[in-house]
Amino acid sequence: MRKPGHAPRAVAASALPERILTAAAELVAIHGPQKTTVAEIARAAGVGKGTAYLYWPSKEELLLALLAHETAAWIGSVRAEVVRDPERLRLSRLAVLLLDSWRHELVELIASDVFMRRVLAAHRDSRELLERSMPMELCLRVLPLLRREGLMRDDAEMDAHEQAYVFNAVMTGFVVGKVTERADATVIDPDAALARTIRQLLEPDTAPTKSQCERLLPEVLEVVDRAVATLEGMTYGAAAPERTGRARG
């Protein structure tokens, strides 16, 4: 079992693929996925276009790698907060952490882009891996652990499946409100409202203790770190020097 304070082991990859992905992120943020070309990315990274294709044989695969890379970074930021303060595993606090981290602009930009939706539709395996690794999906996998350890209500009124449904529905509503920048957010504190809602609906009457959260942390991190490893495999799996893919069209 990995120690709670340790991030997942970095994938063995040269600095060159990372540099290409960094350049891709900067350009995609400005021009969007469809208008950004591999030639522009390679030029910004200081490499030849053929070098970029050596790692990712198509623009589509490079963009999928970028989406996986940015999603892993997003999850890593949430992970770091939970490691720093295990009491953020209390469901009301975890919900607020998810809400506050949700505006990850590049992930939202890529995932919502029409061109990228076509790419994801054509790469079903990659789409499914990404969907299973999104922060909300990971949180839903963590809920049974929280219930088992007394961090959620465990009574006959609402079973684990219904709790997961309620949590997902509440979070979806608050996320939509945040992303669309609803006007009422200027007079209502969304974080406080979300925390109160989750406490009333899903948390036990007695607040979980710090020791409960600390005991559960390693198991939660295993779930998170498996997802990060999957995303890193999507990011760097093709980025090996022996790959000899050539530019297409």
Descriptive labels:
disordered C terminus; mainly alpha; 249 residues; 68% helix; 12 helices; single chain
Could you explain the architecture of this structure?
With 249 residues, the protein is an all-alpha fold. It has helices at residues 15-31, 38-45, 49-55, 59-84, 91-101, 105-112, 114-122, 124-133, 135-148, 160-179, 190-202, 210-236. The N and C termini lie far apart (46 Å).
Concise synopsis of the structure shown:
This protein is an all-alpha fold.
How is the biggest beta sheet arranged? none
The radius of gyration over CA amounts to 20 Å
Tally of individual helices = 12
What is the N-to-C succession of helices and strands? HHHHHHHHHHHH
What does the secondary structure layout of this molecule look like, with pairings?
Layout: H1 15-31, H2 38-45, H3 49-55, H4 59-84, H5 91-101, H6 105-112, H7 114-122, H8 124-133, H9 135-148, H10 160-179, H11 190-202, H12 210-236
Helix pairs in contact: 1-2, 2-3, 4-5, 4-6, 4-12, 5-11, 8-12, 9-10, 9-12, 10-11
